[in-house]
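>> Question from a student workshop board

For tomorrow's exercise we were told to take the sequence and the ligand below, predict the bound structure, and bring the output to class. My setup keeps failing. Could a helper post the expected result so I can at least see what it should look like? The ligand is zinc ion.
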Amino acid sequence: MTAAPGAGSLVVANIGELVTNDPQLGVLHDAALCVVDGRVAWVGPRAAAPAADAALDAAGAAVLPGFVDSHAHLVFAGDRAAEFAARMAGEPYTGGGIRTTVAATRAAGDGELRATVGRLRREALRQGTTTVETKSGYGLTPADEARSLRLAGEVTAETTFLGAHVVPAEYAGRADDYVRLVCGEMLDAAAPYARWVDVFCERGAFDAEQSRAVLLAGKAHGLVPRVHANQLTAGPGVALAVELGAASADHCTHLSDSDVDALAGSATVATLLPGAEFSTRSPYPDARRLLAAGATVALATDCNPGSSYTSSMPFCVALAVREMRLTPAEAVWAATAGGAAALRRTDIGHLGIGARADLVVLDAPSHVYLAYRPGVPLIRTVLHNGVLVA
Ligand SMILES: [Zn+2]
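>> Workshop helper replied:
Here is what the output should look like for this input. Compare the format with yours to find the bug.
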């Protein structure tokens, strides 16, 4: 029972609850959805479903758009389980462990990195993630950054140059020299493989002027900015993201009132990464404050071997509901349509007519179960471009 794009039509029948994220369609009950050529072609009452070449019986379960994970770091080698254990025993998180992963990544062959990226991409897909962004940032030389993005590009079109992740050990004390390398030779090597440019704007990483230089250099190469902003301190990252028209400001854990106002008055999405707070035992972002101000909020995993080694969007939805007081409906929206907004995509994150047929069938009657039954594998079926993939 599959329908390849261009190879016919598929009806998803007997849907108990259909979350479309489409303002006109809303949430439908006792519904059906028809896919033609990998796109949503029809949505309506179960009894009115048109005939199709193939059928998928949802058996009364909930159907949601596939998750859009707009922030992940999948290209790396090694792990940092010992660092995690030490942190859980009371050591603070500083971000300095990134250099451990840089050393392991530089030493790894293409085959090892490709295997890790592929494994994590499949792991995410099984958990309902139909679109994933992924960043470089563990190479930190022109050749290693270009390699990371080339390998990332084998699993996603949403690739982000993060040469300004941390100042590598060989540039210790010479951050401005490193920023010149990032803006020059490294960007020249990386830009052909990237859609986005990102920077870790944080005390101990890159300050406002260094971050601005990197983002402007990326823009000059045709890349669109996104920023690791305000994770550990209420720094300048969010203001800079809004100033430069970034698609997203990510983390947003420590925000001033003017940061919140700036996000609410801009097209820059506030992407919250509760897996990072969970894994570093840190206070969660104030999602309700952002929503009350009118900001667009996305949820993503921040999947990386140091501060958030989860690829699970359902886990992030559960955290957002339990720890950040989003309603289940708000959390599902943020994990789907919010992520699409953070990637400036209109073809994904919803199931309106014409959307890419990326959807999940839950092993549950309602989207609420994603938070109500945390840690339980509730993703029964995944369609990507209308094709059954998990
Ligand atoms: Zn990150």
